[in-house]
Amino acid sequence: MTGYLNTQGKDKDREDKGFTLIELVIVMTLIGIIVGMGLPQYRNSVKKARETMLKENLYIMRNLLGQYYTDKRKYPISLQTLVDEGYLKMIPRDPITYAVDNWEEIPEELNEDDLLSGVIPGIADVRSGSDLTGIDGTPYNTW
Prior knowledge:
Low-confidence stretches: none
Structural class: mainly alpha
Radius of gyration: 30 Å
Number of strands: 2
Number of domains: 1
Distance between the termini: 78 Å
Mean pLDDT: 87
Strand order of the largest sheet: 1-2
Largest sheet: 2 strands, antiparallel
Number of helices: 4
């Protein structure tokens, strides 16, 4: 006696079964489409957040290099000097390379008199040590 209705008007044979295969396939397909549309946007937003953090780190370190120069009338020998003398709590991590020691330290340009007198050039600028390219098409190590 298959196919008879129970008191609530439901098919008794269908009552104990779960979802049909076609229902599961449709739901999984819809989930796949939604994830497929959202994943590139998520990756792009993560990259943009890292780039924003890199710009902020570079701005802070360059600002502190300028403050150090204003205070001491010379540039620091290394980024660690900024930490040792209290300008920074710690050297920030490069959000692109995930390394603390990967910053490219750009030395100051000395004149001939300073070079002849043996002055050690300090760090006038800092850049990312990454050779990857940003969203705008420029390499991170040129920022």
